[in-house]
Amino acid sequence: MGSLFAAPPVRAGVGETAAPRLGLAAHDGMPIDAALAALGRRPTLCLGAERAGISADVAAACDVTATIPLHDGTESLNVAAAAAIGLQRISSLAAAGADE
Predict the structure, then answer these.
(1) Domains in the chain: how many in total?
(2) CATH code at 69?
(3) C-alpha distances out from residue 13 to 1, 19, 21, 46, 64, Å
(4) How far is it between the farthest Cα atoms of the chain?
(5) pTM of the model
(6) Which end of the chain, N or C, is more open, meaning fewer C-beta atoms within 10 Å of its C-beta?
């Protein structure tokens, strides 16, 4: 719980957020672990609305767009689940010392 205060959540326009930016999309992104490895450091996590997903403008402003791998037949995750998984993968990168 205390790690929340190390980098508190922010609601802002994508242009107001720090780079690098990782957009989470339901489909057609690179696998999240590969995206994080390509970025090499903790990104700003950009999320979209549950029904519409990440907008084209936000995706274009992101350095990488990633997708969380799902089992066949699963269409997508809700935004809270996607955010939780994305933040866990980002914090795992930092804990492993791969984050600078």
Answers:
(1) 1
(2) 3.40.1280.10
(3) 26, 13, 12, 10, 17
(4) 37
(5) 0.82
(6) N
